[in-house]
Amino acid sequence: MTEKLDSEQSRRLWEFRLHLETQLYNRLTFFLIFESVLLGVVGALYSKTSQSILVLRAIVFLGFCITVVWLYIQHNSKQSFVVMENRAKVNFPEHNESINRLIFSTLNRDRIPCQLASRLLLCKESKHFLFECPLGKNGGKSESSSG
After folding, report:
1. Is residue 138 part of a domain?
2. 66-76 per-position pLDDT tens digit
3. Angle between helix 53-91 and helix 7-47 axes, rounded to 10 deg
4. Of 90, 104, 125, 140, which has the maximum CB count within 10 A?
């Protein structure tokens, strides 16, 4: 059920979707940098034994409050982005196809670490390590144990 949009409306819809996505990622980047700096400050103050534990608790509490506020703001932004993303998927079939392909490739890619981890676990359980365990053969079992 596509909306009947002219080219100008389609362009504005796409630009607004891009604006929301950029805003979402910019806020995420700012938050990660701020929290990393805050964590560094806490680590530096904690390493000094002369500092009061009260100062550390205040900084940690500040970080927690910022995290809660950021979570609330990002949740609202994400809801707006999802609405615009769904409209874009409906109105731009090529975008929908691209998203579906990305999701499919991500699902296939996410299986690889799980398969590798399970094979490594089998190698470890059979008292072999990576160098003795051919990961691609015999379901993770070594050649000597398959005979």
Report:
1. no
2. 999 999 998 99
3. 160
4. 140
145 lies in a domain?
A: no
Q: What is the pLDDT of residue 142?
A: 45
Compute the residue count for the chain: 147
Torsion angle (degrees, nearest 10) of CA 98, 102, 103, 109: 160
User: Which residues of the chain fall short of a pLDDT of 50?
Assistant: 124-147
Under 8 Å between Cβ of 85 and 17: yes
Q: What pTM did the predictor assign?
A: 0.61
From residue 21, give the alpha-carbon distance in Å to each of 26, 28, 64, 69: 9, 11, 25, 19
Count up the domains in the chain and report the number.
Answer: 1
Where does residue 70 rank: exposed (0-12), middle (13-18), buried (19+ CB within 10 A)? Answer: middle
